[in-house]
Amino acid sequence: MFISAVSNRYWEITISPDFLFISLISALWIMLPAYLPNSVAAVLGGGKAIDGGRVFSDGRRIFGDGKTWRGLFSGIIAGIVIGIIQIRVRDAAGLLILPELTLPVVILLAAGALLGDLVKSFFKRRLNKERGAEWILADQYDFVLGAFVMLLLFQYAWVITTITPLILLWIVLITPLLHRVVNIIGYLTGVKDVPW
Ligand code: CTP
Ligand code: MG
Questions:
Q1: Which of 14, 95, 168, 172 has the greatest CB tally within 10 Å of its CB?
Q2: pLDDT > 90 in the chain, percent
Q3: Is the beta carbon of 112 within 6 A of some atom in ligand 1?
Q4: How confident is the model at residue 131, as a pLDDT?
Q5: Per residue in 118-144, pLDDT tens?
Q6: Taking a C-beta distance cutoff of 8 angstroms, is the pair 31, 144 a contact?
């Protein structure tokens, strides 16, 4: 309805402030179950490393000490819990303008995010980067890519009906910014050793 209220000319539709704002909120809404697992893993992670200390054929760690079972599971559970809360809030408050999330979508967002992070660490070790070393772009987009690969594989219809080009553009723009801000907060509060 906000479309017809503005104009029926396409270029004006796409740049209307309402449309931009709703797309931004939609991008944040969709990505919250994928963003949260990273922070929760950083706060609650620790203990046994997923690779159990084992090394790959190149003699370096498979994933490294920054990828732990506790971080993986606590992060995924946190992403699923926030997603379930979002599903209920949207229904209860009648916020139907927001994109619809479903349980399978939320599970794939949360699990995909931390699996993407894990795969990134695998390649980071192959490139001989130490745990915590910065790897521009990969560090910022690993969880978005992981989440999208999972969604495209198992919830393709949801992706093409829900993710508009503008929502995708917002995700690409806000992800590195949010990542930076959250990591600086993590660094200042002592959760992370480095601000990235
Ligand atoms: N973490 C964890 N388990 C995971 C993911 C993250 O325990 N599956 C915790 C670790 O304490 C990790 C912190 O969250 O140090 C930050 O995550 P991230 O930046 O992804 O890890 P790095 O330590 O930077 O390791 P890498 O170089 O492999 O990215
Ligand atoms: Mg890191």
A1: 168
A2: 85
A3: no
A4: 93
A5: 999 999 999 999 999 999 999 999 999
A6: yes
Instruction: Give, in order, the Cα–Cα distances in Å from 152 to each of 8, 146, 162, 176.
Output: 32, 10, 12, 22
SS3 (DSSP) at 130: coil
Ligand 2: centre distance to CA 22 (Å):
31
CA atoms of 181 and 167, how far apart (whole Å): 20
Using the atom order of ligand 1, give the atom closest to the CA of residue 64: 28
Is the pLDDT confidence value at 7 over 60? Answer: no
Task: Please compute the mean of the pLDDT values over residues 38-59 and round it to a whole number.
Answer: 96
| Contact between residue 95 and residue 61 where contact means Cβ atoms under 8 Å apart | no
CA contacts within 13 A on the Cβ side of 119? 16
Q: Whose CA is nearest to atom 12 of ligand 1?
A: 66
Q: Where are the domains of the chain?
A: 30-188
Q: Which of 67, 121, 194 to mutate to test the pocket of ligand 1 (most atoms within 8 A of CB)?
A: 67
Residue 113 Cβ contacting ligand 1 at under 6 Å: no
> Is 116 near ligand 1, meaning CB less than 6 Å away?
no
Assigned token pair, 158: 């949801």
Cα of 144 from ligand 2 centre, angstroms: 15
The three-point CA angle 107-34-106 to 5° equals 25
